[in-house]
Every structure is written in structure tokens, then in C-alpha cells.
Amino acid sequence: MAVEGISGLSGLNGLSSVKQATPGQAQASFTESLKTAVDSLNETQQASDKMTEALAAGEVTNLHDVMIASQKASVAMDAAVQVQRKAIDAYTEMMRMSM
After folding, report:
1. Minimal CA–CA distance to 70: which of 51, 54, 48, 41?
2. Quick check: 69 and 51 in contact, CB under 8 A?
3. Alpha-carbon distance 92 to 69, whole Å?
4. What is the distance between the alpha carbons of residues 60 and 48, in angstroms, rounded to a whole number?
5. In terms of Cα–Cα distance, which of 48, 25, 40, 52 is closest to 80?
6. pLDDT tens per residue, range 38-78
7. What DSSP line would sit under 46-91, residue for residue?
8. How far apart are the first and last CA of the chain?
9. What are phi and psi of 50, to 5 degrees?
10. Rounded to whole angstroms, what are the CA distances from 60 to 16, 48, 72?
11. CA 97, CA 24: separation in Å to the nearest integer?
12. Taking Cα atoms as reference points, which of 66, 76, 87 lies closest to residue 41?
């Protein structure tokens, strides 16, 4: 059985022209990505809180939507905590490396 090479990846040719980011640009990009993720997490938590308060006040009668918003907020927070733990573990591991 003959194995054929991968073809049709014409988009990879443009990768050689990608500019290398400076450390300052990379740091700014990472900072912006982290800020966007934290803002998104905060918005998810606030939306869940508003829906819960509206349900408690009797303004929302659809419990299903409130539970979905609550679960979305819970999953987002769990993911953020896991990412934080991995980042701390990576930092700790780098600090243990001998030079």
C-alpha cells in the first residue's frame, strides 16, 4: 500500500513571511489575551449573578435559563482555576531548574 504525501496545504507557504514578534510585542499580546480572558470570565459571572437575582426577585420564571447561565459560569471558573494552577506549576518548575 502506497502512502501519499500531504498535498493541498498551500496556506503553509505564507508562514515563512510571518514576522517574528519582539519580546515586548509578545508580552503585550499575552497581556491583552489574558485581560480579555479575565474580562470574559467576569462577564459570565456577572450574567449568572444577574439571572439568579432576577429569579429570586420573581422577574425570571424560566429556571432552565438560570441554571444554564450558572453552569456556564461554574465551568468557566473551573477552567480559569485550572489554567492558574498550571501556570503556577510551570513557574515553580522553572524556578527549580538549575542554570
Report:
1. 48
2. yes
3. 35
4. 12
5. 40
6. 999 999 999 999 999 999 999 988 999 999 999 999 999 99
7. HHHHHHHHHHHHTS---HHHHHHHHHHHHHHHHHHHHHHHHHHHHH
8. 49
9. -65, -40
10. 54, 12, 18
11. 24
12. 76
**Model confidence over 2-39: pLDDT tens digits?**
777 766 666 666 666 667 889 999 999 999 999 999 99
Grid cell for residue 65: 435559563
- d(CA 12, CA 6) in angstroms, rounded, equals 12
**Coil, strand, or helix at residue 4?**
coil
Beta carbons of 51 and 63 less than 8 angstroms apart: no
